[in-house]
Write the structure tokens for this entry.
Amino acid sequence: MELRIQTVVFRKRKGDKTIEHKARIITYVDQKKTKPKLVNLLTNDFDMEPEDIIEIYRKRWLIETLFKQIKQNFPLRYFYGESANAIKIQIWATLIANLLLTIMQRSLKKSWSFSNLATMVRIMLMYYVDFFSFFEHPEKDWQEILIKATVEPPEPSLFDGGACKSESHADNGQG
């Protein structure tokens, strides 16, 4: 991996004093993306190897992306309990739900954005539905409903279904 490392000095005047802070900029081309991207990292750690710093920032970015995804799809506006244990349980439940949706998203052949998948699962959660067949072919059920809606129902008949059968009733003398 090709790197460019620059040392920079930040200066700030405070009264008659000048405060200096040294840092380094590590520049590299991120080849792990679909489109290569030039990345600049600013750090004040001069002891670590640049490759280690790059890997730390990659992992940090994955964590930031996870937090953003959770905040957008599972907003924790309020907690159901006030104890530390209740809050931990709610956060763990959110993380588990996020993991299950991520596994589901990756196992589907049809491409779904995470937020659309989370919204649809939230809507369909109380129905007995095969999630995988629904999410692979969501339009299938709509097509069946539309076909049923366009076909006119049969004309009801007074003589169908045995509603007007002539029956002989034995007269038991009551009456």
The CA atoms of residues 162 and 168 lie 14 Å apart. The beta strands are 3-14, 17-30, 37-43. The mean pLDDT is 83.
